[in-house]
Amino acid sequence: MDVRLTSEQRQLRDAAAKLADDLGPGSVQELSDDDRVARLDKAVDGTGWRSLRADGASGVEVAIVAEEFARGLVDAAFGGPVLAGELTRHLGGDAAADTIAVAGHARDARGARRALALDGGRVLAHGLGAAVAGADLTRHTAEVTGAPEPLGTLQADAAGRWSALALVVTSADLVGVSRGAHALACDYAKVREQYGNAIGSYQAVAHLLAEGLALIEGSVSVLRHAAWAVDELGPAEAVRAARIAKLYCARAARTVCETAIQVHGGIGNTWECLAHVYLRRALASTDLFPVRLEDIHSGLS
Amino acid sequence: MDFRDSPEEAAFRARLRSWLAERAGTFPAAGDEYWARQGEWHQALYSAGFFGLSWPKEYGGHELPPVYDVILDEELALAGAPARPSLGYLVQGLGRHGSEELRRRFLPGMIDGTQRWCQGFSEPGAGSDLASLTTRATREGDQWVIHGHKIWTSYSDVADWCLLLARTDPDAPRHRGISAFIVSMHQPGIEQRPLRMINGVTREFGQVLFDGATVPADQLVGQPGEGWALAMTVVGHEREPSTLGFSARYGKLVRELTARAGERVPEELAWAEVQAEMLRLHVRRRLSEQLDGVVHGPDGSLDKLLMTWVEQSVGHAALAVGGTDDPELLGAYLYSRAQSVMGGTSQIQKNIIASRILGLGA
């Protein structure tokens, strides 16, 4: 038993973190900086990470990139294309410019031309229509249009693993969001002064942030196992591991993001503070492939 | 990366599992009966080669990687066997701060279970603020004389020895005036007063009054005034992932509660299951990190906080399933309240996380 990241995985994490730090939105205003988004999108394209699975990468590597991108609020598509690629990987064909369709909408649709849905075992390709407003300010949702084109059928095992990977990608996103929101709140707590002291020096504030870090550490552990399980355990066990991770990481992320808003006080409740951008992304990632507590004991579906 | 057992780990697990199967039901796993026979259980584990797994061979350990302790804990929980006696922090404290002579004299008996130990740290006026302790040790010739009052001392009534913190220099700054001693519990000048915990257990917790008990000068651990450093080692190791108090038992209780709940699984139970699984995986990650030689300082406070949340979540699940009519489940719930106090309160853990990891200056 040894569950450390390999040195290659640590390098991947560092590279994804650097890209997110360099080109992700550093403020709410930068969310509407189209030049930045174009540069970010080009840089992500250049890494080839959207086709990680087709290139033989494990669930762990996909989760590493998803986590770092969410930490930096990366607003270029990643999870959608990766999951679309996982569908076409089994069917042959070109996944470039694909994303996924879930619950009747194309998700993570920025730059996509088609959206692939898994319906039972069948993979269906949809066209993309108008943008749909949603909670998330960093990833686009769109309507799907036209008659779906059947691309083929996945074996039950492959469909099960795809579900596990989808839960892992969104769980990794939640862990990244938690880390980003928590770092934002800690930085602020060190500089914002009230009663003559940094607010982070007061136990009432410090303890909220300490709890947040413990939740993040627990999230990292449960995610690591689920990401590993995608390829290393049987599909039913992989899905169960992923459901546990999703439940834990989603609760943790909401708490940590709410804490980030609270620590920012009045400023945290304004549009210009990034805290709500993290919370919104957390809510969207929770709702995408949702898991309820009562699902833990149900079989593959 | 692999969450599975290596071939060596799997072989160890199989050997342990068959040993436990032969002894199923022999030792009580909870309540006063557990505490009454804990010493016997310790020696049975030790004789079979299943105790002191990660400790040095020269003192009776096996020098195995810390993951073996996790395998042991998992299999004990699975078999419904009693917990592994929790001694790692005392072994680390004496191992790191004691002289070679003290280590040779005391560690083998501590590890093989023939000598029982307790930890005399907390006092009525010194709980979270441990450095305010007032138990005094005064040098008289070649011995020290102890006066003071220790409390919340686990298994003090059966202990042969006490690792005791006492103030030896009342004029020194308070952290520097404390020394650590190895005190025999079999002597006049020591009075035991049992404490009854809120779940009714009387054998676990005690208070100990020292009124003129003596300790030979060669049983001072380290130099006078070095007791605080030993105390920090001990409490730090109380929060180590491999000593995270038998966390595998949470998964077992959750499985039992799930079987009892039948169709209607209360939300608290489902959430406890998620949390217990998180902790199982968290311990594995932390132990793997130790392979890099990562020394667990303040990070142990994160582990302790997570474990506390899990235990108390499982406690709430026990209450949700058993109500107040099931004495065993009510006992499990009530016992879980101690977890956010023992080994440093959750508030103290959060202070440590905030100041030493997050740098918040709290």
From TrEMBL, chain A:
InterPro entries found in the cross-reference section: AcylCo_DH-like_C, AcylCo_DH/oxidase_C, AcylCoA_DH/oxidase_NM_dom_sf
Organism for this UniProt entry: Prauserella endophytica
Highest rank taxon of the organism: Bacteria
PANTHER family: ACYL-COA DEHYDROGENASE, ACYL-COA DEHYDROGENASE FADE28
Keywords: FAD, Flavoprotein, Oxidoreductase
Protein name according to UniProt: Acyl-CoA dehydrogenase
Transmembrane segments: none
Domain Acyl-CoA dehydrogenase/oxidase C-terminal: 171-284
Family: Belongs to the acyl-CoA dehydrogenase family.
Signal peptide positions (record): none
From TrEMBL, chain B:
Keyword Oxidoreductase found: yes
Domain (Acyl-CoA dehydrogenase/oxidase C-terminal): residue spans on this chain: 225-358
Keyword Transmembrane: no
Highest taxon of the lineage: Bacteria
Span of domain Acyl-CoA oxidase/dehydrogenase middle: 118-202
Essential cofactor(s): FAD
Domain Acyl-CoA dehydrogenase/oxidase N-terminal: 6-113
Keywords: FAD, Flavoprotein, Oxidoreductase
PANTHER family, sorted: ACYL-COA DEHYDROGENASE, ACYL-COA DEHYDROGENASE FADE29
Family affiliation: Belongs to the acyl-CoA dehydrogenase family.
Protein name per Swiss-Prot or TrEMBL: Acyl-CoA dehydrogenase
